[in-house]
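Good day; I would like, with your permission, to put a structural problem before you. What I wish to show you is a protein chain and, alongside it, a tokenised description of its three-dimensional fold. Please examine both parts with care and let me know of anything in them that strikes you as inconsistent. Thank you for your consideration; the sequence and its tokens are set out here:

***
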Amino acid sequence: MKNPAVVIRRIQITEKASSLAQTQNKYFFEVDPAANKLEIKRAVEELFKVKVAAVNTMRYRGKKKRERTWRYGRRPDWKRAVVTLAPGSKIELT
């Protein structure tokens, strides 16, 4: 099993994430692109001491960004996990 601190890079606090956390008990995390759903589930349960009901993942390609010349660079690819917690579980964000 991978180290949970390596699997979970950071929690995403956005307008959409905060509204889903309040209404549907779902939380967004930026995770390691090589991590699978079981590793993400175990990492969230171990780090935050909560019960996870489901994990959904999605991959994002890095955006093209213009450099100071005519060349284009790219931001790195990343992966998002939407973690649904079991009823009664909650993550304190503050």
Q: What stands out?
A: Helices lie at 4-7, 15-23, 37-48.
